[in-house]
Every structure is written in structure tokens, then in C-alpha cells.
Amino acid sequence: MEKVIILAMFVQVTLSLIVMIIMGKRRFAAAKNKQLNLSDFKTMQLDKAGDTVRVADRNFSNQFEIPVLFFAGCLLALQLNSASTLVAILACLFVVSRIVHSVIHLGGNNIRARFNVFLLGCICVFALWLVMIWRILAF
Predict the structure, then answer these.
(1) DSSP per-residue string spanning 8-46
(2) Taking the mean position of all CA atoms in its chain, how far away is CA 52?
């Protein structure tokens, strides 16, 4: 199960890098279309760029919020030799939820669907941490 957890972590890192590339492409396109000036990047005042740039920026920032708790929980599971099937399933579900969240956010941006998927990911991370706490306190 350790390999599955590490693979889930790798996929999450890959998602972050893909979102970064999407964000960069959208920023360059906005600059090329004269929606942004280079001086806008000094203070990251990108409001003039439009929603597609701001959404990509926000999605990239999202990759360093809840996923940080995911990485910490996975590393704890690996460190404590608690890489169970349940932890692996929760890790994979979390990463799938993050992929779906990004697809929704960067695509049509349906708020209700995006929130539901976000909530599922949060529940997975919380459950992962509950498993770890149970493991620590029970043994």
C-alpha cells in the first residue's frame, strides 16, 4: 500500500504542475492580448486579465491549501508504517476529487458541483487523519 500512497502523492504533485502550466498559459495569453502589462506582474494585480486568469491563479493557490494536510497525513502514515488499504483508498479518493475539482474550476466552474467535490476531498483528508489518530492512540 505504500506504493499506492506514494503514487497518489505523485499524482497530486503532477496536478499542481499541470495547473501551474495552465495558469502560465493564461497569463501569457492575457499579456499578449494587452489585457495585462508587465508592470501588473510586479504586484500581481491581475484583475484586468479577466476571470480565466484569476480562476487559474486561484486554482493553483488551492493546490497548496488542503493538499498540504493530505501530504502531511500521507507522510505520517508512511512514517508510522500505517499504510493500510483504507489509507490508500482515502489518498486515491482525495486525489481524484482534486482532479475533478480542478477540471470543474478551470472549465465551466459549476459552483455546486465544485463545492461537492471539494467537500468530498476534505472528508477524505479528515478521515485519513482520523485513521492516523486512531492508529497512534490505539497502539
Answers:
(1) HHHHHHHHHHHHHHHHHHHHHHHHHTTSS-TTHHHHT--
(2) 18
State pLDDT tens for residues 40-82: 676 677 777 788 989 999 999 999 999 999 999 999 999 999 9
Look up residue 45 and give its amino acid. Answer: Q
Residue 19: closest CA among 104, 126, 112, 122: 104
> For 65, which DSSP code?
S
Predicted TM-score (pTM) of this structure:
0.92
> What are the CA-CA distances from residue 44 to residues 8, 93, 103, 104 (Å)?
32, 33, 24, 24
CA angle 99, 4, 59 (to 5 degrees): 20
3-state helix, strand, coil in the chain (%, to 5): 80, 0, 20
Task: For residue range 75-102, list pLDDT tens digits in order.
Answer: 999 999 999 999 999 999 999 999 999 9
Q: How many Cβ atoms sit within 10 Å of the Cβ of residue 115?
A: 12
Please state, in angstroms and rounded to a whole number, the distance separating the CA atoms of residues 104 and 88.
24
**What is the per-residue pLDDT for 35?**
80
